[in-house]
């Protein structure tokens, strides 16, 4: 089934660790996004990509990095996790259409806890 | 940049009543306005959207209206049911060609009381 998949679903790690949150989509979408969201709260854009080898920082200052080497894959890396990074991370994708706008499809998220 | 304000932040209604959530945006270039529903512990999902060349759109119990002049749009849910309880996010999007910038509102927590 075409969807957007995130792993792991939950992650608890210690301060200072390097982590990578995985996001893959089988929907054939060209655009991909990472949002940070405390449960039920506002969505903050941290990174986005319009296609392979394209990455941009979003509105929320973040100490993370992303890469887009393959169309379907958009991993997010935290070089040194801190307690302030504790949150939920949502990956999303969308398809470029003639009009330029299309809805975002979200993954189930990774809930990260840094101790 | 675009700024989207959403009100109210919380809303409680009796089952069967209507619920209205309002959003305003600042950038007149925004041309697409989706609404997402996020149930507890789940991902946001699109429930309805409207493009700038349309003033109103309806899908069963859900409708969205857009006033481009005033730069505001609203979500209307009629005959509310307990399963409508969730957080609702409005968004304003500017899109052209391969570019799309989406700005979300701060969310409205809707509680439908049986």
Strand runs of chain B, count: 11
Number of helices of chain A: 0
Shape of chain B: globular
What is the general shape of chain A? globular
Report the structural category of chain B. Answer: mainly beta
Main sheet of chain B, how many strands, which sense, barrel?
Answer: 6 strands, mixed
Outline:
By secondary structure, chain A is mainly β. Chain A contains no helices and eleven strands.
Explain this structure to me?
- The complex is a heterodimer of chains A (115) and B (114).
- Chain A is mainly β and 115 residues long.
- Chain A is built from no helices and eleven strands.
- Chain A has strands at 4-7, 10-13, 19-25, 31-37, 44-51, 54-57, 64-66, 76-78, 87-94, 105-106, 110-114.
- In chain A, the strands form two sheets. In chain A, strands 2, 4, 5, 6, 9, 10 and 11 form a seven-stranded mixed sheet that branches.
- In chain A, a hairpin with a 2-residue loop joins strand 5 and strand 6 (54-57).
- Chain A is globular, with a radius of gyration of 14 Å.
- By secondary structure, chain B is mostly beta strands.
- Helices cover 0% and strands 61% of the residues of chain B.
- In chain B, strands 2, 4, 5, 9, 10 and 11 form a six-stranded mixed sheet that branches. In chain B, strands 1-3-8-7-6 form a five-stranded antiparallel sheet, with no helix packed on it.
- In chain B, strand 7 (62-67) and strand 8 form a beta hairpin.
- The radius of gyration of chain B is 14 Å and the shape is globular.
- Chain B starts with a strand and ends with a strand.
- Chain A binds chain B through residues 30-31, 33, 39-43, 45, 50-51, 59, 90, 94, 96, 99-109, and chain B through 1, 31-32, 34, 36, 38, 40-46, 49, 51, 87, 89, 93-100, 102, 104, 106-107, 109.
């Amino acid at each position: 089934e075409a969807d957007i998949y995130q792993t792991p679903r939950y992650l608890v790690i210690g301060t200072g660790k390097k982590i990578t949150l995985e996001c893959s989509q089988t929907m054939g979408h060209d655009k991909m996004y990472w949002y940070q969201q405390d449960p039920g709260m506002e969505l903050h854009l941290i990174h986005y990509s319009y296609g392979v080898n394209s990455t941009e920082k979003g509105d929320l200052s973040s100490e993370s990095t992303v890469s887009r080497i393959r169309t379907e894959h958009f991993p997010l890396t935290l070089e040194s996790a801190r307690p302030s990074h504790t949150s939920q991370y949502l990956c999303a994708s969308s398809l470029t259409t003639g009009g330029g706008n299309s809805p975002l499809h979200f993954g189930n998220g990774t809930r990260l806890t840094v101790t | 940049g675009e700024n989207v304000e959403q009100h109210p932040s919380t809303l409680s209604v009796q089952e069967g009543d209507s619920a209205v959530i309002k959003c305003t945006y600042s950038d007149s270039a925004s041309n697409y306005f989706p609404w997402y529903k996020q149930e507890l512990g789940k991902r946001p999902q699109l429930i309805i959207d409207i493009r700038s060349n349309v003033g109103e759109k309806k899908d069963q119990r859900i409708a969205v209206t857009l006033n481009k002049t005033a730069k505001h749009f609203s979500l209307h849910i009629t005959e509310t049911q307990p399963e409508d309880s969730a957080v609702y996010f409005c968004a304003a999007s500017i899109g052209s060609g391969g570019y799309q910038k989406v700005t979300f509102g701060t969310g409205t927590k809707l509680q439908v009381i049986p």
